[in-house]
Every structure is written in C-alpha cells, then in structure tokens.
Write a structure and sequence with these properties.
The protein is an alpha/beta fold. Helices cover 31% and strands 26% of the residues. β19, α15 and β20 form a beta-alpha-beta unit. The protein binds adenosine monophosphate (AMP). Adenosine monophosphate (AMP) binds next to β20, β27 and β28.
C-alpha cells in the first residue's frame, strides 16, 4: 500500500484487521484472542489474551540476527565516557540488573521507581523491570524532592534505583540527598534503594535499605533471568505528567499495544531500518526518552544513542560529530535545541559527514517557522515535526513517509497518524468543526489506538473525568490543545487549553509551581502563567501577593525575596520549574466569583489585549501587573 489516505482510512474503518497486521511486527509467546476489546469505553484493551514481553522484543529477539551489532551507545560529554553495548552485552547487563532487582524482592506487578541521570544503568533498569513484569516509573533527574515524593507516594515502589549524581554543563548535581528527603516526605517507604555509584558525589547510606549496585551485580555476574511472559494488557510503566491540578497524573501504559505501536511507528513514521542508528536527544525522564531512546529503536533492531550532556559542549558540533561517527540515520530532538543551535555558526552542523542522516524529527513543543527554516537550511535534510503527548506514547499528528512521501508544511506537525480518529471540537457546544481554519480543541474519538495510556494509575475515575466527554462508542478524548485544520487536512497546534505550560519542551503545570511558591511563609497568594519566550518557547512568570508588604518595599528587598522563592522552587520541584521572574503585587486579577484570570495576566505579559474583562473584580489588579511588566 502506498497511499496514505487509504492506509489511514483502513486504520479507522477496518481497525482490527489493520492492527492485527501491525501486530505481526512483534513476537508473541501466545497469540492474542482479540485485537481490540472496546466493550467498556473509554477503556480499550488491545491484543487481549496475547502473551508477550517488551524486553524480549527490544533485546532477546535480536540475538539470533544481530547479537554482535551495537544496541546501546552511551556518550557522556559530562564525564567523558563513551561505551557501546552490543545486543549480546545489553542482554547480559539487563539480566544482571534483573537479578539484582529480584534479589531485592521485586516481582511481577511491583513498581520500581527509577530516578537517574542519562547513564546505561538507567536503560538496564527500565529493560530489567519489563523483563520481569515489574512496572517502572522513571522520574526525570531534574526534579527535586517534593516532585519525587509525590510520585513515590502515588506509585508506592517496592524498590528505587538511583545514582549518586547527574551532571549538567560540567556541574555535578547530587541526587542522593534529594532522594532521601523525598522518601522522608512520602508516607510510602520503599523496601530497597539500589544506588549506582558513579564516583561523582558523596552519598550517605541508610542501613538495611540502601544497596550498592556494583556490589550486588558482582554477585550475579552471569545471571540468566528469563523473560516473564505477561498479558498484553499488563502495565509496562507509569510516567507522571502535569495537568490542571497540582497532583501529577500517572500515565499507565500497557505492554502489547505499546510494543506494536512502537514497532509500527519505526516503520511507517521514522523509517529506521534494523542495523541503523537512532539518536534521540531527549531524556529518559520524558515520554520521548521512553519511546524513542529506549524501546522504539531497540524494538526496531536499531542501535540507540544515549547522550548525557549539552548540545553545545564541548562545542555546538557535538551532536553532529556523533551522527558522523555512528552513522545515525534517524534523529529526534526538540525545537528548543534547534533554537539553541541557531545562535551558533551553521558550520558546526555541516563540518561533519551527515550523509547517513535521513531526517530530523522534532517534537514536544511548537516548531516556529524561522527555526524550522534555519535548521532545515543548515542541515540540508528533511525536518519533520510531530505532535504527541505523554498520554499517547507516539505521534498523533505527523507525516508517515514510510507509507507515502508527503510534503511537510512549515508550522504544521502534519496530518492525523493512522489509528487516531482526530476531530476538532467547538469548545462551547462540543460539536465537531468541519470548516477549514476554524479554531477548536484537538480531540480523538475513542478508542485511542494501541500504545496510548490505559488509564491513570489507580484512578480510572480520574482518567475518564479528566480526558473524556460523551458516552459509549462516541466518547471523545481531549488533548487539551487548541488547533486548526487547513483545507489540505494539515493541522496547526495553537497551545494548551488548560493551565499546562511548555518550557523548553518540558511540560509543567502552573498549579504545581503555584503550590510550591505558596509554601513560602511570606507568600499569601500567587499566580503563575506561561509567557512566550524566544528561546524556550515559554517561561513561567509568577506574580505573588506577600503577607508582609514591608518585605518588598524596595527593589533590593524584592529581589532578595524573589531569590528565596526561586530557591524554594528549585529545592522542591527542580530547576526546570523555576519561574523566570517572581514579581510582587498587592492584589491578583480575579473574577467576582474569585477565579484567577490567568489568561488576562498572560496576555498582559505578552503585550496582547487582555480580552473581555467585564467579570473582573478589581481592574486596578491588572494595571499593577502591567506596571510590573513594563519595568
Ligand atoms: P508532553 O506530554 O510532555 O509530551 O507534552 C505534550 C504537549 O506538548 C502537547 O499537549 C502540546 O501542547 C505540546 N506539543 C507536543 N508536540 C508538539 C508539536 N509538535 N507542536 C506543538 N505542540 C506540541
């Protein structure tokens, strides 16, 4: 088949036959009984009755054909370590990690929290968990103790795998203190903490709880740990993401549907061939890291590069030197990274042999036209935008060049990917918009295709009430993004409909940041909004009302308090969530019923018209924000 329109239609109209074919791309220990059970919308059970294993499909399956080819290529420009692991070596490492976890009491269905920098042991831990049927929950290493504690509390891990430290721009970021503090804060206590000691930062050890990975691994040097065959619907992992409320949602992914979805995406969207090299510059703490640093490329029989470091260190040519050295054929990054590189001479990109590279995929945040044009010109390669979310695990919108070559349009992530019955919905009346270029909420008619979230961990109700509207077979999933569709069927994403902001491709909830700032003893009230930023896409901007106005009487005092608040956010949530500025006001703009007018604050910060303010309680409140932003 080489007509994408037909391919797509079939994925919707003849859903089970379509996905049944895609399921042939992976190994099954026992074939499934049913492709899709959607008897209880919006809960979709894909490949029910089938037995499989994610680690088998990512690692063991390739031993017969490519045992001595590279599987994992680790490059750290932070510690100057470069190491490659063949599929055979990766298989051995994963079994070792699996044996260590088993020795700590981890069994099928147990949660294991992984709080690690970008080091090979993090990949071993993820693969080891799914190998034995344990459910991993990777927490981004940039998050601090309060963020980590809420995740420990929610997923109640039996064990945590962590490391002494990460490193960023040559600066060591110790993890152990944050981890101990997070465990203190959480009412759930993991039985075991497995620590990888990189020799970067000193660590204190909690007796009978903390174990050293190297010591434990040495005891099981030649461990043979068979794959645990699990039902296709068995959860593979939980990945927390921000939403409207302060409490992060645990996105729960299945096993069979996810394996099939990734295998299909490697073929139809990313066009990576077995034996080639895939380089995704994301972090394992994010969904792109799960799907396209670890699982997708390995399922596709490709080598994957795991890179610890900045894109500009030792210089802005580092990524491209890796493309040359490892003959990368598919690369995946975020628009922010391209905007960072744009500040440097394009020579850095072109002085390396990039002939192996077929395309650069960008996702995670809107790709602005100047950046897209710059990087496409500098690389001389196709730049392919794709739009998706932690919830979906793989692209909702994109260009499936593996099916049919289609032109990209600047500013658009493309067209609905097979399996996603995408609709634009009028927010006011819930009806579908059919006229081109009308703005609506991007929604997907259920069932979501394989690979998407099964539910919110331990909270089916929240899954339904957060994401779904309508009833029965007509239930509609909301992405919480605004979009338009042009006359050719290409979509354009116009930003979130909720209080989620996107800072350098990192998704953050403004409410989480507000909660953290409010915990400062001198803050009475605070509003956080996302404001457009040339480099990061958006930055968080905070406006706080202080309890004691004498603390902010002059600039120096205000700066001091601002510094304290920023440090508080750093310590609780992590530097990624730190607002660009914290400004002080005596009152926040609200409606008469007491609702914060975030969109009005955001508009003022961005120099736009604040819109209809007839419901505003105190017009002087917005004026204060205008005055603050003006200085
Ligand atoms: P995350 O769950 O962290 O991947 O964030 C998902 C959100 O990032 C989406 O809901 C969008 O708001 C935004 N996003 C992701 N990819 C794109 C893209 N290609 N263009 C515009 N926005 C995007």
């Amino acid at each position: 088949m080489n007509n994408y329109a037909d391919f797509f239609r079939r994925s919707i109209d003849d859903r089970d036959a379509f996905w049944g074919e895609q399921a042939q791309l992976v190994d099954w220990k026992k074939p499934y009984d049913r492709v899709c059970n959607y008897d209880n919308p919006p809960f979709a059970k894909w490949f029910e009755g089938g037995l499989t294993n994610l680690c088998h499909n990512a690692v063991d399956r390739h031993l017969a054909t490519r045992a001595d080819q590279n599987a994992l290529i680790f490059v750290s420009t932070e510690t100057n370590v470069e190491r490659t692991y063949t599929f055979r070596e990766l298989h051995a490492e994963v079994q070792r990690m699996a044996a260590v976890l088993q020795a700590q009491g981890v069994t099928k269905g147990d949660r294991v929290l992984i709080y690690m920098p970008m080091i090979p042991e993090a990949a071993f831990a993820m693969l080891a968990c799914v190998r034995i049927g344990a459910i991993h929950s990777v927490v981004f290493g940039g998050f601090a103790s309060v963020s980590l504690a809420s995740r420990i509390e929610d997923c109640a891990p039996v064990a945590i795998v962590s490391a002494d430290a990460g490193s960023r721009g040559g600066k060591v970021v110790p993890y152990k203190g944050l981890l101990d503090e997070a465990i203190n804060l959480s009412s759930h206590k993991p039985a075991r903490v497995v620590m990888v000691d990189r020799g970067l930062a000193p660590m204190s050890t909690v007796a009978r709880r903390d174990v050293d990975y190297a010591t434990e691994a040495a005891k099981v040097q030649n461990a043979q740990v068979p794959c645990e065959w699990v039902d296709a619907t068995h959860p593979s992992y939980i990945l927390y993401t921000s939403g409207t409320t302060g409490k992060p949602k645990g996105v729960q992914r299945d096993t069979g549907g996810y394996t099939v979805a990734l295998a299909a995406s490697m073929k139809h969207i990313y066009m990576g061939e077995p034996g080639e090299t895939y380089f995704s510059t994301s972090d394992i703490g994010w969904v792109v890291g799960h799907s396209y640093i670890i699982y997708g490329p390995l399922i596709g029989g490709m080598a994957t590069i795991m890179y610890e470091g900045l894109p500009i260190r030792p210089d802005a040519g580092i990524w491209w030197s890796l493309v040359e050295k490892y003959k990368v054929s598919v690369m995946f990054s975020a628009p922010t990274a391209a905007r960072v590189l744009k500040k440097y001479d394009p020579e850095y990109l072109t002085k390396y042999d990039l002939s192996s590279l077929k395309a650069l995929f960008l996702a995670g945040e809107p790709l602005d036209e100047p950046t897209a044009k710059w990087i496409s010109g500098a690389l001389g390669k196709p730049i392919i935008d794709n739009y998706w979310q932690t919830e979906t695990g793989w692209p909702i919108l994109g260009i499936a060049n593996g099916v049919e070559t289609k032109a990209s349009k600047f500013g658009s992530p493309g067209v609905p990917m097979y399996g996603y019955n995408v609709r634009l919905i009028n927010e006011a009346n819930g009806e579908e918009l059919t006229t081109p270029n009308e703005k609506g909420v991007v929604a997907v008619q259920g069932p979501l295709p394989p690979g998407c979230m099964q539910t919110v961990w331990q909270d089916d109700k929240r899954f339904v009430s957060t994401y779904w509207t309508g009833s029965g077979a007509n239930m509609m999933y909301s992405t919480f993004d605004w979009g338009i569709k042009d006359a050719d069927g290409y979509y354009f994403i116009l930003g979130r409909t909720d209080d989620v902001i996107n800072v350098a491709g990192h998704r953050l909830g403004t409410r989480e940041i507000e909660e953290s700032i409010s915990s400062h003893p001198n803050v009475a009230e605070v509003a956080v909004v996302g404001v457009a930023d040339q480099l990061k896409g958006q930055v968080a901007m905070a406006f706080a009302v202080v309890k004691d106005a004498s603390l902010v009487t002059d600039d120096a005092a205000a700066r001091k308090l601002e510094g304290e608040i920023m440090k508080l956010v750093d310590d609780q949530l992590g530097a990624v969530a730190r607002p660009a500025r914290v400004r002080f006001v005596t009152v926040l703009p609200k409606t008469r019923s007491g609702k914060l007018l975030r969109r009005a604050i955001q508009a003022v910060c961005e120099g736009r018209d604040a819109g209809d303010l007839t419901t505003m309680d105190d017009p002087a409140a917005l004026q204060q924000i205008k005055d603050q932003v003006a200085v």
